[in-house]
Each structure stands twice: as C-alpha cells, then as structure tokens.
C-alpha cells in the first residue's frame, strides 16, 4: 500500500495534549529516521505544551491541521500526541475542505476521536497508528515494516495475528479505536454510523469498573445490535494487572449474544509493537486464516 515516496513532505501535528519538552530528542530521532526514508518533516507550531497540557486552544490546533490539508506539498499528516483534549479541535475542522483535499492522517489513543470523525464526515480512510513507534523499543521491526508498507508494495504493518473468541468469520468496515476516547463522540455529529461495521476497541489505562462502564454505554447506544463483529485489541492495564473479569469476559457478559463474532489481538493498541489498522477499510476475517 504505497502512500509515500522519497522526497515527500509530511506534516507533524499534535491535536491532543501538547508534548513535554523532554520529548524533543525523541521527535528529533523520529525526524532522523524518516529522513533516512527521504521524507521531509514539516512541523506544526502547536506541538509542545505552552500552558498546562495545552499547545494552543482547539481552534489554533485545528488551524494547524487545516494548513497541512490545504498544502499540496504535504502528502500525509502524522499526529504525535495523545491524552484527553483532541475533541476540542473537531468543531474547527472544515470537513468540506478536507473532503476536497484528502490525505492520509495517522494517530492513535485520544486521536481516535479525530480519525473517526474524519472518516464519518468525509468518508476518508484514516490510520490508527502512532508514528513515534519508529523510535521506541521495537524500532527495528517498526521501521522495516513501515517503510515496506507505506513506501513500498508490502502490507506487513497492516497484518495482525488474532484468536477467535466466538464466531468463525466477520466482514465489514472498520471503525473504532480507544474504548474510552471514542465515547467522547457520543451524541455528536462526528460519531461514525455503526450499522454493519466492525468495531475495534483497545485501551491503555482502566480497571474493571471503568471497562464495565464503557461497555455498558456502548450497549446503551445500541452499538452491539448494529455491528457485524468486534475486534478487541490490547488493554494494557487490564492485561498487565491480570484483572478479573478480563476484557473478553466483560464484553461477552455485556453483549450476551453468541452470534456476534469476536476476535482478540495483542498487536493493536498502545504497545510499542503495535501495528496499524485502517479506519474506513473493509476487512474480512475468517477462522483458519
């Protein structure tokens, strides 16, 4: 799936919490890695914290994103942030302009609100992936697979291993992301339509009561009556602490329907080894694949 070529410019933004100054070296390392691919980084002015957790207000951060969508020389946009405040930018994004100037947008965690809103409002595919994985503990594999997948003809970074919890097949278009953050779109115009979709859930923090609350809200929103399948990614705190009931048990209890296909993977989420999944992409998963 070639998206980028040597010599391309890519935009670096932060729609959620601003980065701490201590991350400057990591971002410089990222620039160096992407530079070895022949990519040229163009930075938003809204990357690092200027006060509290903020790197500008919602309008200012949205303007930084829109600037890159309007710049024909920018071939992809990578969000390097995460946290809590990404939904502040949504009302200031011009989705009609974005629809006329589509380009790959990458982000994860709190950026679940942005990548799902972009898909919902423009039908543009977006990428649940944190580009900073290229300079984290699993960097060698991430670098190799990123380059092959997005600058070559490979698809390694898009392939993930999974186990079947129930069912034997699922087919549909992917929506979702962070189980907590996606709920911020509830009741807004930015929430994707779940009808006949496959929904992905993953999580960083959160104990049993929090996960039970999130899943209950999805149930009360009618999500589980609409989707054609569920992908559970990694749930970092739940799995590290070996909480009981675990996320699979909680989900099965909430949906109480053995006809909904469910798979579990440890390869999509907040782990440094995490792979990429495309929001808006139609996928088919079969038992035995």
TrEMBL record:
Keywords: Carboxypeptidase, Hydrolase, Protease, Serine protease. Residues 171-285 form the LD-carboxypeptidase C-terminal domain. The keyword Amino-acid biosynthesis does not apply. The keyword Protease applies. The active site is at 109 (nucleophile), 202 (charge relay system), 270 (charge relay system). GO terms for biological process: proteolysis. Transmembrane segments: none annotated. One of its GO terms (molecular function) is serine-type peptidase activity. InterPro entries: Carboxypeptidase_A_C_sf, Class_I_gatase-like, LdcA_N, Peptidase_S66_N, Peptidase_S66C, S66_fam. Residues 10-127 form the LD-carboxypeptidase N-terminal domain. It comes from the Bacteria. Belongs to the peptidase S66 family. This is Peptidase U61 LD-carboxypeptidase A.
